[in-house]
C-alpha cells in the first residue's frame, strides 16, 4: 500500500512524510479491524483503500489550502474525507460530524489511540449542529452523503461568508449540479466551480464541486430534515 500511496501522492503533487504514511496505515488497520464487527466500509482490499479512499480524499488538498483553517466533514462515516485530510494537513482544525453514533465512537477511538490533536468527532445531525455552529467554519467538505441540493442545505449554513463548501461527486453529476443551482444561490453560495480528477493508479474520474459562500445563509435554513427531504430547495 505504501508504494501506491507514495507514487499516487507524488503524481498529485502532494508531499507526504514517512510519519504520515505510517498514520494512514495505522488508521487503515484500525478501520479494517473494527469493520469486522461494525459496518464501516465495503472496500477492504488495501490497494483499493489506498486508491478509492485515501488518494481520492487527498484530492481536496490539490484544490485548496486547509492549513490552520477550520474544517467540518459533513457525514464523515468512517472518516472520509476528513481523516486522510487531517493526517496530510495536521494543522487544520477538523470536526468530523456524523449522525451515526457508532461511527463517531470508532473515530474517537482512532483520535485517542493515534494521539491526534486539532481534531474532534461529533455525533450530531448537520442540520441540528448548525444551530450552535452557524457560519463557524472556513470549509465544509463532504463525500457520498446526499444529492447536492439537499447536501448544500446541510453544509452551507456551517460555512462563514468568504469560506467554501467542497462536495466530492462523480463526473456524471452535471444534472445534479444543475438541479442544485437554485438551492446554492438561496443558501448564499456562488455558482459552483468544478474540478475533475483521475485517481492515480485507476481510471476512475471524480469531481470536486467548489462552492464559495458569498453571503450569509438566510435564517430559515437549514430546515428540519423531514422538510429538507420532503421539499428540497
Ligand atoms: C454513505 S456514508 C458516506 C461516508 C463518508 N463520507 C464516505 O465518503 O465514505 C453517509 C454518511 O452520512 C451520514 N449522514 C447522513 N445524513 C446526515 C446528516 N443529516 N447529518 C450528519 N450525518 C449524516 C450517515 O450517517 C453516513 O455515515
TrEMBL record:
GO terms for cellular component: cytosol. One of its GO terms (molecular function) is rRNA (guanine-N7-)-methyltransferase activity. S-adenosyl-L-methionine binds at residues 75, 80, 126-127, 143. It holds the Pfam family GidB. SUPFAM superfamilies: S-adenosyl-L-methionine-dependent methyltransferases (SSF53335). It is found in: Cytoplasm. HAMAP family: 16SrRNA_methyltr_G. This is Ribosomal RNA small subunit methyltransferase G. The lineage of its organism: Bacteria, Bacillati, Bacillota, Clostridia, Eubacteriales.
Amino acid at each position: 500500500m505504501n508504494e501506491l500511496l507514495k507514487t499516487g501522492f507524488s503524481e498529485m503533487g502532494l508531499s507526504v512524510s514517512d510519519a504520515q504514511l505510517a498514520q494512514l496505515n495505522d488508521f487503515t488497520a484500525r478501520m479494517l479491524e473494527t469493520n469486522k464487527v461494525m459496518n464501516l466500509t465495503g472496500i477492504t482490499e488495501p490497494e483499493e483503500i489506498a486508491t478509492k479512499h485515501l488518494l481520492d480524499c487527498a484530492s481536496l488538498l490539490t484544490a485548496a489550502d486547509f492549513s490552520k483553517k477550520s474544517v467540518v466533514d459533513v457525514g464523515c462515516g468512517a472518516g472520509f474525507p476528513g481523516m486522510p485530510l487531517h493526517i496530510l494537513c495536521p494543522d487544520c482544525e477538523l470536526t468530523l460530524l456524523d449522525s451515526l453514533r457508532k461511527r463517531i465512537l470508532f473515530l474517537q477511538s482512532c483520535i485517542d489511540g493515534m494521539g491526534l490533536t486539532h481534531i474532534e468527532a461529533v455525533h450530531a445531525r448537520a442540520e441540528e449542529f448548525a444551530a450552535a455552529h452557524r457560519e463557524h467554519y472556513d470549509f465544509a467538505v463532504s463525500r457520498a452523503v446526499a444529492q447536492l441540493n439537499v447536501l448544500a442545505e446541510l453544509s452551507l449554513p456551517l460555512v462563514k461568508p468568504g469560506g467554501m463548501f467542497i462536495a466530492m461527486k462523480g463526473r456524471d453529476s452535471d444534472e445534479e449540479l444543475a438541479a442544485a443551482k437554485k438551492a446554492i444561490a438561496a443558501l448564499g453560495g456562488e455558482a459552483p466551480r468544478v474540478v475533475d480528477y483521475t485517481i492515480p493508479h485507476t481510471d476512475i474520474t471524480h469531481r470536486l464541486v467548489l462552492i464559495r459562500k458569498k453571503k450569509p445563509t438566510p435564517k430559515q435554513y437549514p430546515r428540519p430534515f423531514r422538510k429538507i427531504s420532503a421539499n428540497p430547495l
